[in-house]
Amino acid sequence: MIALVTKFFTTNALIISGILLMTSCGGATPIQKASDSNSGFDGAFYDGESVEVSENSSGAEEYRLFHHDDVGFQNMVAVRQQAENRANQFCGQRNLASRTIREQASTPPFILGNFARIEIIFVCEEPELVRLSVEQHESDKWETLETLANLRDRGVITEEEFEVEKAKILSQ
Question: Domain residues of the chain, as ranges?
């Protein structure tokens, strides 16, 4: 009977330890002004991929945050979500909304030290400005798609070219 109870507690202790290990695998650096800090990707063996998301036309102060998976158990979606939540919380404390300017993210395969990680450069703006920026971006997408469809209909580009370009636009 004692052996059965000991085995039960040992098994549960291992399961709980594993769950705690997997849920606490992310790491993050403090959010800093982009002008006063270095990229978390500086000197990294795997540079990742950098993307310009929007333009800082307002000249607002840019902030940098770096979030990463320490042990390889989290996927890129989870790491990105945690980073975006940190940016939103940071700006929310100032009654503002975050808008991503640039991001750099690691790319698969996530092996041998190339764990999921992302760096986001963002600004804090009035929520109305962020909403208008998103609406303008969506409007630009539809205008571009309409132009592409017009080119396809006139025979300037093929259906295949149209589909490739459409996929690029919709993925932005």
Answer: 22-125, 127-172
Structure tokens at 15: 């399961």
Give me the helices (H) in 24-126, please: 76-92
Long-range CB pairs of 21-27, under 8 A, 24+ apart, other chains included? 21/71, 21/73, 22/73, 25/69, 25/70, 25/71, 25/72, 25/73, 25/74, 26/67, 26/68, 26/69, 26/70, 26/74, 26/78, 26/79, 26/82, 27/67, 27/68, 27/69, 27/70
Q: pLDDT tens digits for 117-133?
A: 899 999 999 887 666 55
Strands 62-69 and 26-28: antiparallel
Q: Is the pLDDT of residue 156 over 80?
A: no
The pair of three-digit structure tokens given for residue 87, joined into one six-digit string: 């940016």
Q: pLDDT tens across 1-30, in order?
A: 565 545 555 555 445 544 444 444 456 788
0.85 exceeded by pTM: no
